[in-house]
Amino acid sequence: MKNQTQFNNVIPFIPEGDFYFVRGIKAFQRRKFDIALKWIEKAVEKVPNDPLYQCQMSIIYTEIGLYHKANEILTNVLHHAKEPYVDCFYLLANNYAHLGLLSDAKKYALTYIEKEPNGDLVEDAEELLEIIDIEEQDDWLLDDEDELIIYQETAFYYMETMNWEKALLLLEEMLLLFPEHPTANHDYAQALFFSGDKERAIQLELEYVQKNPTSLYSYTNLALFYYEIGEFSEYETYIRALLNIYPIHDHQKLKIAVVLARTGYIENACSRFQQLNKESVSGHLSYYRWYSHVLYLLGNEKKSKKIWEIGCKKHPIMTKEVQPWES
């Protein structure tokens, strides 16, 4: 009875919002954003109307690049908080700047300065306005280099996702503006091949390799093209040359690794993938796609699934592809 009485007198510990909030801040400071978000969400559940909790949640979303989600939370705070939470205006300005919506960013930065002229974030807001002014001046001065970068990044995306028709159209347009761009010519040949015009693609690469007998891109393309059409004697000529080439740059190393993976040199491909700097190729969907395939074919299913999972997190479009163990 005594023990029962003691048990009944125990007051259960029910954390208030601050308990979760403090833990969320600690996780945020360690840049463990997924853990921080879980703690802050619990704090918001406990105290739904606390603008500080809401704003901290928006900051986490900003850090992981979910700017629209962050703005949704901040707008909600501005509309429903009992007292104006002026910091929201600066946070909105920062998010809109990241999204490239400079007029909105400028509006909210000015609003913050107007409402809180001595606020802690005034210097940050003024610095943001200076950056916006520079960006606005540069917008109409888009030079050839900027335009080339836009073409390259867009073409790269279509190539990595194997959207050959869109890649082909874009590369045709790009080559009208930049006819001497070497990578674009090789990308065009590859898009042409996988869009169905195989003979013309091979002919273009043969012409390129005659002009530049040491062109790595011609060798990788021709090895892949000849393998795909079943001309293995020609394929062997180019693939054996690639087996003896060890480039300095990681994107060139990756190109060889992918061709080896796609054409049956599985162990060689695995070795090449292992030599890559993960950080420098993390933007390449092809790294995760083909490295995972190679590992699975070599019997390392556990690591294959891990690489595929990481790839899907970094490149969500991969979730729509057939996994190596399902093919």
TrEMBL record:
Signal peptide: none
SUPFAM superfamilies assigned to the protein according to its UniProt record, in alphabetical order: TPR-like
Keywords for the protein's UniProt record, in alphabetical order: Repeat, TPR repeat
Xref: Gene3D superfamilies: Tetratricopeptide repeat domain (1.25.40.10)
InterPro entries: CellSynth/LPSAsmb/PSIAsmb, TPR-like_helical_dom_sf, TPR_rpt
Protein known as: Tetratricopeptide repeat protein
Provenance organism: Cerasibacillus terrae
